[in-house]
Description:
Blueprint lengths: L1 H9 L1 H19 L9 H28 L8 H5 L7 H8 L10 H4 L2 H20 L7 H28 L1 H5 L5 E2 L4 E3 L2 E3 L1 H15 L12 H10 L1 H8 L11 E2 L2 E2 L6 H20 L2 H5 L1 H22 L8 H27 L1 H10 L2 H12 L15 E4 L11 H4 L9 H11 L7 H5 L4 E4 L1 H17 L26 H18 L6 E2 L5 E2 L5 H27 L10 H6 L1 H10 L8 H22 L2 H8 L5 H11 L20 H9 L1
Helix pairs in contact: 2-3, 2-16, 3-5, 3-7, 5-7, 5-8, 7-8, 8-15, 11-13, 13-22, 15-16, 17-18, 22-29, 23-24, 23-26, 23-27, 24-27, 27-29, 27-30
Amino acid sequence: MENLIKIYYDWEIQLEVLLSSGIQIFLFFTGGLRRHGINMFLRFLIWIAYLGADMVALYALGYLSRHVNVPAACDTLRGKHPLAFFWAPFFIVHLGGQDTITAFAMEDNNLWLRHLLNLIVQVVLASYVFGKSMGRHEIKLLVSGILVFIPGIIKYVERIRSLNCGCLKSLESSMVYQFESNNISIKGRKVSPQVLTLIEDWMVSLGGVEMIPQNNVASYSDIVFTSLNSMKRVLNIFGGHTRRLGDPVRFGRRHFSLSWQPKIIRKVLEIQLGLMYADLYTKAYVLRMRSGVILRCFSHISMLVAFMLFLAVNKQSYSTVDIVITYSLFIGGLCLEVCAVFISMMSPWTWKWLKHRGWHRLAHFSWLLFSNGLIGCPEEKSFCSTTMGQFKLVSWLWDVDRTLLELNTNEKGSVMNVATKLVRLIGVKEEKLFWLGKLVYMKYNADKILERLIEGVCRFAAAGTQQDAPKLPNLNVNNEEHKEIDTFDFGYLIVFMHIRTETYLDKTAKPEPHLDSEGVTRCPDAPVEEWADKDAAVDVCRKLSHYMMHLLVNHPSLLPLSGSAADALRRRNIFFTVASENYRFNRSAAKETVEEITEVWIRLIIYAAAKSRPEMHAVLLARGGEPLTFVWLLLSLHGMGDLGRTRIELAGRRPGSLLRYVFEFAG
Length: 667
């Protein structure tokens, strides 16, 4: 054991160097995966690596600083590893972070001043370590080390600037257009909407790419270009700036058309949210600036020249292991820089900039990288996460009569049901039940359901505020008998509708097919084609119901709750009584009834999105985002919701208000 400890102390600094370098490689290749949504284990590893990267580099610098003043004859580091001082500037490079991840969460962006102080302290410390060894090594090695300081400081400054640009305060002050009652101010100068339209038309014409045509047929490049042209507006929306202008939102020369196919709109929103994630949590925004490009080129040149000088150094007085480690630091750093260049070339911003400059061959190369299926993001691949969390409340309620709810037998084998039985055995109290639900929940690829939501938003926006109350003949809702529902807040309404939906869908499950006398498989009550249509409608309805419960349990801050989510969940017994005894839907028109319930959930999601806050959506982008963010952004682009011209409120019972929609839909 003593020998192992001695070996560890003899090789401690080398292990720290290799560990720090390995962490940086891991962060570079995994940091950008969060945009697509990742499992909990990989997210935990990225979090540990993000925190550990700075800790390892800081500890190694502190270790070096404690040994530089000790005579070589008395010190293991100076005696056996005289090249260790040369690794100090590499730790500054590592502290600068990787292009694919500057912040793990939104709170990290708000700490940019702390990182600025760390930059000053760590550069001084590394300079102290390096300066103490200047008189004992040849000039080529010293110049090489000084040149390594340059990319280290540049990368650290890039990181601090990216954190500053991504913090909430910067978002709030980064409005491109300041919207007023009748005019628009650009950099303090008032411009009429007509002049702004001409400016936008001119800017789009410079790009040389058409917008999405009105015939609803669009190439992938049209969709990407449309998304890029609207990013200034998206930035304003995430900054919380209210649009009060009377003109519709424009994407370049064309209005955002409600007639576009939901698939096209979904793809536009995907790219917008993916680009917003890059601006908030990576160095993408800084590297698009002219100053950022110049400094990055200077950083590459400095690192390359430093490596060439190190190749010319006489290495006979240094150990082979130390030389190999130094080579690995140079080669690993240069390879990461080359990969970073490819990532920059793969950015749609780079493609648009090259096309604007008329460098068509480079623009074509950039587009090939971006649309490549291996390393890029082709049209069939999501640019950001489109998964939808699923949480079924009744799976967690062990104290409820299962006969009343008539649960499917396959529910007994679900992950949630098994976890429920386990925590019940160890005596976990009921109030801790939903905390476990935050850790164990299902996810579902929601491309088709997102398109259904987008279709609902476009229909809602096209109708405007002058909407008649919907006709729901199959829900058999008697408002006079259940006025107490009006006293419940939005959380109660979600739980009520969720249990009511589950009750109906379980009772109208598709019967088992059987073989008739001719040996043909048939369903007893309806043709096979009709059951297939109904099953698809049931699947959409059930997924929307489970998703809203997922938001209530895991992200209650996204919902306009007047109380806490726990309060709404504690009242569930009331809802079981109401759902089972008083609300009986029409089972003779099963498909129509399911469509009406689905419309209820779409309206509830629209209201929740309209009342959500932009900072919460910015925070959730670090976790892959939520489908609710798509709805919120689309509403805001249409000028609806709390950030638009048309506010959606629950107060009052004026004709067309969402209160009437929600409560007539839900009872």
